[in-house]
Amino acid sequence: MADFRAASPPAIEFVEATKRYGSAVALDRVSMQIDDGEFFCLLGPSGCGKTTTLNLIGGFIPLSAGELRIEGERVNDLPPHKRNVNTVFQAYALFPHMTVAQNIAFGLRMEGLGSSERASRVDEHLELVGLRGFGVRYPAQLSGGQQQRVALARALVKRPAVLLLDEPLGALDLKLRRQMQLELSRIHRQVGTTFVFVTHDQEEALSMATRIAVMSGGHVVQVGTPSQIYHRPVDRFVADFIGESNFLEGRVDGGSFVLPDRTRLAIRPGAAPGAATLMVRPEVLEVTGPQEGRAGCLLPGRVVGMSFMGNHTRITLETAAGALVVHRAHQSGAFYDERSPGIGEEACVWWATEQSTILTSTSGGEN
Question: Which stretch of DSSP H or E encloses residue 211?
Answer without folding.
Answer: strand 211-216
